[in-house]
Every structure is written in structure tokens, then in C-alpha cells.
Amino acid sequence: MKEDSVFQERRYRINELRAKSEKMTCRERALTALKHREPDRVPIDNWMVPEIQKKMTEYFGCDSYGELLDFLGVDFRNNYGPSYVGQSFKKHPDGTVEDLWGVKRKTVIYGEGTAHQGSYSEVAESPLEKLKTIEEIEKYDHWASPDWWDYSKVKGDCEVYHPKYCVINVGDRLDRTSQLKPMMYLRGMEPTFIDMVMNPKIVETIRDHIIDYFVGYNHRVFKAVEGEIDIFMMGDDIGGQTGPLLSLEMWRKYFKKGFKTYIDIAHQYGIPVMYHTCGDVKQFIPDFIECGLDILQSLQPKATNMDIKKLKQEFGRDITFQGGMDIQHVLPLGKPEDVKAMVKYAMDSAKPGGGYFICTAHNIQVDTPLENVVALFEAYHEYGNY
Amino acid sequence: MDNLKRIEEAVVNGKIDEVKKLTRQALDEKIPPSDILNKGLIKGLEIVGSLYECQKIFVPELLMAGMAMKEALALLKPTLEKSDIPPAGKMVIGTVKGDVHDIGKNIVSMIFTGSGFQVTDLGIDVSAQKYVETVEKEQPDILALSCLYTPTRLAMIDVIKLLQEKNLRNKVKVIIGGAPIDQNFSDMIGADGYAPDPPSAVKKVMAWLGK
């Protein structure tokens, strides 16, 4: 931590607010809120793209991202799971690289040459897209296997954060426990949606391969960590900006059983489950609760029907929420006072009685002014105390 | 039930083969192709739009309806051209530079094609230069820009600036769409408008063109 007065001044406000409100460890705070009881302040989770991590680390004079998280009062630490020891990912002459599922990926740069330059790894080609029959799909030779991972270090990776922090096993963005996402990577997005209407057997065949993999993988992760994971996170985007991507009936037909299976496995090991989905999923929430989901993550406020106040009133007794901060409009385009008003609204709406972790609805994106990110964390501490 | 009503219903239900069969039948029965388009396919699309808006149908059903319309239009096209009926409008569409997400853009493209538009789809990761060159060459009524991420939406500003520099801005209407787009962003960057979903894009553009 750099001690020059300029950095000390920048850190002053957050330090002052934290000193007044904090009486628990991060882990105690998070687990208390998860039990729907009020801790000392609302637990804070953090999602930001690497470019923003770097800018914030520099701005506050921290020597590492870990130090930044400590300073900001972020209560959760991510565990990315076991180490990959399978065959090396195949590289192709066109620059694409195959992922865990044999899907060709490429790095796409946006905002090239500007202040908001960044990149994402995107699907370049879906290997099952052109296949027409179940037999062809069954013959695919790159279904992922739980044997491709070394589970021996994952316990130690989690242990280093205990007892202070709350550890979330998040997996990797591209390999996170899910059903629909790998299906879309393997088959393509449009063909997947068309299959849901025209070729149910194809959906079921691909889905079953995906579920088999994650069931085997997660059993081995949970066994290996011996209680060192506090929260298991899975994620599958089924919501869009103006409504769910697919109907509740279709989700029940194809995905509900797998969703519950994943939750049941974590619960067998005593681990609560958080589920990430972007977008409007309001009409799915009763089914999520019925399946035993503990925490619903994202609450994208600019999506239809995802107002945190209404969701808390309707479902807050039965489920914990994580998220609620808008990265689409308020953070990139608003002013610091808009950011503060957004935090206050979410805190007033969702913090009573516990059951709320505050966080952005997705990664804070590279086009977000630094002053807004600073205002966000200051407001977390200003309005989060009980 | 008359044939046009059945076409409308088959579009709403996303029955691709049924829409094609009924369109062929209607042509055989010498129903004017403009009636098949406007009183069958587009009426179906209007219902699809309201069902989508009130969350009665979702992306799979929207996609099926779009595909059905596109296929039906391919059947109508020779007759429309023979009868000297001009396209409903010309559109150039693409996903902006730095963004490779195209399911929304593809559905918009399909639905406009199925509504009788001549659509030039430039695909994904399209540079401002490419859009503007195509606008110069094709002289479309509508330029449609799509994106998924918030940082990539900033590439839309480059397209509008370049249109202004080339004195093309007042020659084409710019409509924008994608998850992080709203009216406020559209106003901010000087687009003509935005649409939250493909059917409402058709509604908006039809109104712009006085149809």
C-alpha cells in the first residue's frame, strides 16, 4: 500500500466509513446475511473487468488487486476450481484455440486504440452446428471429462482465504457449471433455439452430455475441498433485456431437472448455491426457490421486471439476492450522484432482514469512468451499515 | 378461414413448412403478392410482436416466425418483381466493430427481409468505414446497427460521425439496437431511434417510411 498523502486522501473516506460500521469478519458477515439475519453491514461482492481492476488498484495506491479488494472491503474471494491437466488446447493456423469442449475460440478486441480498449474470448466456430442426427452428435469426440482436472490443490487454494473471507467457487466464465451455455457454444445460439422447437432429442442429447460432465466434476471438487468452499456458483444466462430468452415451460421441459441436480449435489456437501443469470427472469424465481436455490445473482436493474424493491418484497424471505447495480447505463453514463442514488435505493430496498449481497449486475466495464467506480464503493459503505 | 388469415396464423405459430405451403397456394389462387405480404405475413408479424412484448413468446418462437417469413418472401419475390412492386425499403445492417454477437441482428435481418425489405447484411465486427461505404453504394433508407456490450456500443458513435463527415447523415435513417441500447443512448449519439426488439423495429421503420 503506497503511503503518499495523495493516496491516503483518496482512501480516507472508505477507511473512515468502514471503521465506523465493521465489527465482523468478511465470512461472518456474508454467512449471517445468507441466513437472512442482519450483520454489521451489507456484504460486498465485486465483479470488474481486468482493465478496471488495474485502474482502481493504481488510483488507490494499492500494490496488488488483492490489496485493493482488502481496502475496498470486498467480503468474497473467488476460487476458480481445480487445475486443468488434460490435453493442451489445440491451436489452429487461423489463430483460433479450442476450449474445454472443442469449441474454437478467438480473441476479439473492441475499442482498439481508444481509452476503452478491451477484449473478450468469443466463439469462432461451433463444432456441432452442422450435424443433423443424434448419431452424429453422439460420435462427437470432444465431450469434456472430469478426468482432465487435478483436484489436489483446490482445497489449499480455498483454505488460504479462511477464516477471514467468504470463498465462492465460481469456476471459469467459459466453463462455469451450466447447461444452456456450453450447448450454445457447441451447437451455436440460433441452432440451439431452433432445436428447442424442432429437435427436442438433439437438445436432450447435448444437455445430458453436459450434465454428466458437471455432475462428475462437481462431486470431485466438493469432495476435494473438504468444507473449504462457502458458496458454490453456477451460471447460465436465460434472461434477456426485455424478458426471458425462453419460456418457463421450455425451461421446465429441458433444464429444470439439471438445475435441481446441480443444487442437490452442492447441498449434499452442505454448500449453499448461487446462480448467475443476466436479464429478466422474474417468472422463473418461484421455480428456482422450489429447486432449493439459495442465492440469485445479477438482478440486472435495467432489464424488465427486475426492480430490486419489488423482488425483495415478493421473494426476499425465500431467497438471498446478489447484485442490483446497473453497469449498462448508470455506471458508464451517469454521474457520481446517480451512482450513489442507485446504491441507496438498492440498500433501502434489499438490506432489511439480511439476505442481500451488494454487487454490480455484471463486470464493471472498461467504459466506466473511474470516479463512478469510486463513488460506487464509497456509497456501498455509506448506505450499507445496519 | 381464408388463406391470408391462415398464413397469418402459421407465422404466429412459427410453422415454417405451413407458411411456405400456404404462400404457394395463395400464389396459385392468384392472390396479389402484395396482399400475401401485407395482409398475411406482416399481419402475422404484428401479432408476434405483441406476443413477444407481453412475454407470451420468446426467442425460439420469434426466430421460427422470422425464418418462416423469410422463406415465404423468397417464394413471393419473383412475382413481386414481375409485378414491378418495389421493395418495402432498403436496409443495411450489421453488428458494430469489436462485437461478434449476432442473434438479435440476424432475427432483425430475417424479419425485415420477410417484411419485403431489401436487406444487405454486413455480418459482425463491421467497421465504420464498411458501413459508410455500403451506405454510399446501396443508398439504403435505413442503416441498422447492433451490439451486445456497453463498450462496443461506443463504436456506433464512430459510424454516425463518419456518416456526418461524408455528408450522408441526412440521407439515411439510423436505427440502433441491442441489450445496452435505450432511447437515452440513441438521443445521446444522434441516432434516429432505437427498438427494444425486432418486431418493434419493423413497426418503427414502417412508420418512418410512411407505410
How would you sum up this structure, described in words?
The complex is a heterodimer of chains A (386) and B (211). Chain A has 386 residues and is of the alpha/beta class. Chain A has one domain (5-87, 127-383): TIM Barrel (Alpha-Beta Barrel), CATH 3.20.20.210. Chain A is built from 16 helices and 14 strands. In chain A, the strands form four sheets. Chain A has a seven-stranded parallel sheet. In chain A, strands 3-4-5 form a three-stranded antiparallel sheet, with no helix packed on it. In chain A, strands 2-6 form a two-stranded antiparallel sheet. Chain A starts with a helix and ends with a helix. Chain B is α/β, with parallel strands linked by helices and 211 residues long. Chain B has two domains: 3-82, Methyltransferase, Methionine Synthase (B12-binding Domains), Chain A, domain 1; 89-208, Rossmann fold, CATH 3.40.50.280. Helices cover 59% and strands 11% of the residues of chain B. Chain B contains ten helices and five strands. Chain B has a five-stranded parallel sheet, sandwiched between helices. In chain B, α5 links the parallel β1 and β2 (117-121). In chain B, α3 packs across α10 and α4 (59-82) runs parallel beside α5. In chain B, 54% of the residues are buried. The chains are: A alpha/beta (386), B alpha/beta (211).
